[in-house]
Amino acid sequence: MERLFDLLHLAFRQREAIYRVGRLFSSLFGGGFSLKKAAAVIIAFFEMFGSVLFDLPLTPAGEELNLDGYSLVFCDEFEGDSLDESAWFSRGEGPRRNGANCGSQIKVENGNLVITCEYLEDGEFGPGWYAGAAALRQKYKNGYFEIKCKCNDGGEFWSAFWIQADNPYDHELSRGGVGGAELDIFEAPYGGEKNPLLRNGVTQTIHCNGGDDDAERIDSRMVGIFKGKNIYDEYNTYGLKWTEDEYIFYINGVETARSSFASGVSEEEETVIVSLEIPDEITHDKDFTSQFVVDYVKIWQEQ
After folding, report:
1. Global confidence as pTM
2. 92 — phi, psi (to 5°)?
3. With contact defined as beta carbons under 8 Å apart, do 159 and 188 qualify?
4. Bridge partners, residue 276, by sequence
């Protein structure tokens, strides 16, 4: 089967879409028949073709999130009128890609963290496009990390929630991710898509270096493209359970994928980041603006 997949040049996420049909079918008859399971098999079957042929997103169909044995160790529901600077800092101040990150683009209002992208003639780093990234001062290793948010709508900027090691792209230090990885819990890059089948999709990805002999090439695995629910108008949750053995990704409390790519999970403490990302190329008119709205960020760890 893998040889056939290689001949067809299928990505990991597309292969997983095929395997998912088999897993759900086995569960339908091996774990007790139900109409809900039967419906999941039918949906997975048709979505498999959409993934293989057009790289379309899949409906989350794994196990429901279970946090038995975990305790909440961090919670920010963004009450008040300013960011808690004892917990957060503005990350990456200055030029980034085709714009700049700036703390002035990060606000707390109406019980939400709000990050705005816009063009500023009088911006801190000169005229240009601005957005922002908020990062936790305390680093974490292992646990369950979750955000509840509305993604920014439209255009080329995209919302993201991710965990970053100090040296995920250094071949010798990352060691295939064991010495540190970038864990993209979710990115929402399809806000400008007109195709409704793709527009509500988000990507979930692992990046590192040292997984092979090519020191210049970043090792990446997009574990999948998955559907949220009206992600620009409604709050969705996106989560990652980082265990000693693997990373398990979730959307709205349902497992989407799991992986230990490339050489195993990170053994390093890493930084948790909420960001509105700036694209390499921006074609918007200067009056374009968009906002990433976050209801909460929470972290649980095993006790």
Report:
1. 0.95
2. 70, 35
3. yes
4. 159
What angle is formed at CA 140 by the lines to CA 138 and CA 144, rounded to 5 degrees? 125
In whole angstroms, give the CA distance from residue 277 to residue 116: 10
Residue 157 identity: F
Q: For the chain, what's the residue count?
A: 303
Q: Are 16 and 227 in contact (CB under 8 A)?
A: no
Question: How far, CA to CA in Å, does 48 sit from each of 9, 12, 19?
Answer: 15, 13, 9
Q: Rounded CA gap, 128 and 130, in Å?
A: 7
φ/ψ of 42, rounded to 5, equals -65, -45
What is the spatial distance between Cα 20 and Cα 104, in angstroms, rounded to a whole number?
44
Span 177-196, pLDDT tens digits: 999 999 999 999 999 898 99
Structure tokens, 200? 């509500």
Neighbouring CB atoms inside 10 A of 106's CB total 25
Question: Which H or E run includes 2?
Answer: helix 2-8
- pLDDT (tens digit, 9 = 90+) per residue, 27-46? 887 767 788 889 988 999 99
Q: What are phi and psi of 75, to 5 degrees?
A: -150, 125
**Residues forming a β-bridge with 162:** 184, 273
Residue written as tokens 């090792």? 219
